[in-house]
Amino acid sequence: MNDIPKLLIGLGAALILFGVIWQVGGRFISLGRLPGDFFFKGENTSFYFPLATSIIISIVLSLILFVIGRFR
Fold first, then answer.
1. Gap between the Cα atoms of 4 and 43, Å rounded
2. Contact 31, 56 (CB under 8 A)
3. Per-residue b/e over 11-28, b at no fewer than 16 CB within 10 Å?
């Protein structure tokens, strides 16, 4: 039972760190407004599909998890 609180604390710290990086990094890297992110606006609706942003986030997370897996 001692592993679950440690896991929750670790996940919480990672989320806080990710949020801070997202806020600070958003000033320099405009994720969500990259070429390849599609935005369609009609009269009454709008549709946003962040294709390039999703690909970049997927690559970064894959690299992070790969590095973590190599050191385990």
1. 49
2. yes
3. eeeeeeeeeeeeeeeeee
- Residue type (1 letter), 41: K
The three-state secondary structure class of 47 is strand
- Mapping DSSP onto H, E and C, the string for 3-15 reads HHHHHHHHHHHHH
pLDDT digits (tens, 9 = 90+) for 29-61: 666 778 889 999 999 999 999 998 889 889 988
pTM here is 0.60
- And the tokens for 63? 């690299």
Written as one letter, the residue type at 64 is: I
